[in-house]
Amino acid sequence: MTDVSRPEAEATAAKPFTPDQAFRPPRNQWWDVWDQFRSHRGALLGTLVFVFIILFVGIGPWIWQVDPGFIDIRSRNQGPSWSNPLGTDQLGRDMLARMMYGGRISVAVGLTAMFLGLLIGTLVGVLAGYFRRVDGILMRTTDLFLALPLLPLLLVMVLLFRDMLARNFGEAAGVFVLIVVAIGITSWMQTARIVRGDVLALKEREYVLAARSIGTPSRRIVSRHILPNVLSPIMVSATLGIASAIITESALSFLGLGFPPDFPTWGRLLFDGRDWIEQYPARVVWPGLFISLTVLSVNFIGDGLRDALDPRIRGR
């Protein structure tokens, strides 16, 4: 029997390598992360929905230039029309403009509170995981915050500091600072525990032990070797923190303890529409729908990032 594969092999071996093939740079690992992320259909769909919501609240007011606070009593409680696509409320204010403006505030609160909680949680987690002397104190403090009833604690903080901050920063800015700080300092505990667990495992790796053996300072080990390797849980916690902050702000606004009526967040729109839910159910459907879509899309993005940033899953 003749070997038919030998000519093909000789022809392949005779082909010279092109300069592009010989000096092709190695593939960036972030391309692998992106390939794994886009293979997660839920994460890709969540990204599209979240980008749409960001464009809706960010660019929408520039396109739909209607004052969300303009009162027209003659047009109150109207249904959808060309002039008011989502109808009007009990004071004749345009619901589409209020949804856009309120979404901007809700998303801003979610992002800012997430960054604050992420900063506190990462700091506590790294310190507790790397420095054994402060591990016990920081973890017992974390357990104490986890044991506290968060919603009653938030209500007490709002009642105690709302008037003082409103006098110093103005009503809207004071409430914004209060809600962001209140959510941030009550949402860092899960991040701290996750980061601490990863740091405890990382500080026993060979490259960390080698850096310590040559006298590298602890702050440099943490910044160069520890933090880059805990980005995966930090980024996942960030996406979940946005959803949690938006839900918490909406709950406070729904209870009437959030922003004043002139600053209509999605939770405030739910609060204003609760008395009209039987006659005009769309008044609560639209803000509730946008809150649900935002939270679901962010959660799907977090699931996709968790899978994409895990090298064991990415290598399959």
TrEMBL record:
The keyword Transport applies. Keywords: Cell membrane, Membrane, Transmembrane, Transmembrane helix, Transport. Pfam families: BPD_transp_1 (PF00528), OppC_N (PF12911). The keyword Transcription regulation does not apply. It is found in: Cell membrane. It is a multi-pass membrane protein. One of its GO terms (biological process) is transmembrane transport. PROSITE patterns: ABC_TM1. The chain crosses the membrane at residues 43-64, 105-131, 143-161, 173-195, 226-247, 284-302. Residues 1-23 are annotated as: Disordered. Residues 103-302 form the ABC transmembrane type-1 domain. GO terms for cellular component: plasma membrane. Belongs to the binding-protein-dependent transport system permease family. This is Peptide ABC transporter. The lineage of its organism: Bacteria, Pseudomonadati, Pseudomonadota, Alphaproteobacteria, Rhodobacterales.
